[in-house]
Specification:
GO molecular function: phosphorelay response regulator activity; transcription cis-regulatory region binding
CATH architecture of the largest domain: 3-Layer(aba) Sandwich
Number of domains: 2
Radius of gyration: 25 Å
Strand order of the largest sheet: 2-1-3-4-5
Shape: elongated
Strand content: 15-25%
Order of helices and strands: EHEHEHEHEHEEEEHEHHEE
Number of helices: 8
Low-confidence stretches: none
GO biological process, one term: regulation of DNA-templated transcription
CATH superfamily of the largest domain: Response regulator
CATH topology of the largest domain: Rossmann fold
Pfam families: Response_reg, Trans_reg_C
Distance between the termini: 35 Å
InterPro entries: CheY-like_superfamily (IPR011006), OmpR/PhoB-type_DNA-bd (IPR001867), Sig_transdc_resp-reg_C-effctor (IPR016032), Sig_transdc_resp-reg_receiver (IPR001789), WalR-like (IPR039420), WH-like_DNA-bd_sf (IPR036388)
Keywords: DNA-binding, Phosphoprotein, Transcription, Transcription regulation, Two-component regulatory system
Number of strands: 12
Largest sheet: 5 strands, parallel
CATH class of the largest domain: Alpha Beta
Length: 225
């Protein structure tokens, strides 16, 4: 993970850079807003640590400039302990805020928390499952068949996403109900009806090898490609 620190307190930056590198981060530094923005534009970073009070271009202005073209996570630092400064920084798009002096271990823990949250969001947005001309996008909860969008109910989508995410695994009706409805199964016929509707909407009528297959006496599964 690459981190850019933009702060004019050279002693603080030196210590923070060393601590982050010991944790496995690759760290670049800049001591004023103008240089910081130039470094940011010429490389790719996973997170910025940005001081509020900077020479040449202040942290608030720099945050605004960066947010015009990038959603990179930003941790803001300040010697001020004013609520208005925190609110302003966060409203401009900062992901977190720490007031100097701070505990380095806490800052690193917060940095890791931000990166985990961003990584989780990216995984959710980019999880796309395909089978032939079927495309299931879990992040946007859309389904396309032969490039045409298929309108599914929320439960139909959840069942399809569960099956295609686990191709080849047979799910008993009771388990499908429990995983999708988040409650004990009261009537397995509900699953049969939803599967029937899914097959109709997906035009899944191949006799020899439909996408959603039945394991007689057990349940349903999505065929392996």
């Amino acid at each position: 993970m690459k981190v850019l620190i933009i702060d004019d307190e050279k002693l603080l930056v030196k210590g923070l850079k060393k601590s982050l590198e010991q944790e496995g981060f690759e760290v670049s530094v800049a001591y004023d807003g103008e240089t910081g923005f130039s470094v940011f534009e010429t490389s790719s970073f996973d997170l910025l640590i940005l001081d509020l009070m900077l020479p040449k271009i202040d942290g608030i202005t720099l945050c605004r400039m960066i947010r015009q073209s990038s959603e990179v996570p930003i941790m803001m630092l300040t010697a001020k302990d004013s609520d208005i400064d925190k609110i302003l920084g966060l409203e401009l798009g900062a992901d977190d805020y720490m007031t100097k002096p701070f505990n380095t271990r806490e800052l690193i823990a917060r940095v890791r928390a931000i990166l985990r949250r961003v990584e989780k969001q990216e995984v959710q947005q980019e999880t796309v499952y395909t089978s032939g001309d079927l495309v299931v996008d879990s992040g946007y909860r859309t389904v396309k068949k032969a490039y045409r969008e298929v309108e599914l109910t929320p439960k139909e989508f959840d069942i399809l996403e569960l099956l295609i995410r686990n191709k080849g695994r047979v799910f008993p009706r009771e388990e499908i109900f429990r995983l999708v409805w988040q409650e004990p199964c009261l009537d397995t016929r509900t699953i049969d009806v939803h599967i029937k509707n899914l097959r109709e909407k997906l035009k899944d009528h191949e006799k020899n090898s439909p996408m959603i297959q039945t394991k007689w006496g057990v349940g349903y599964y999505f065929r392996r490609d």
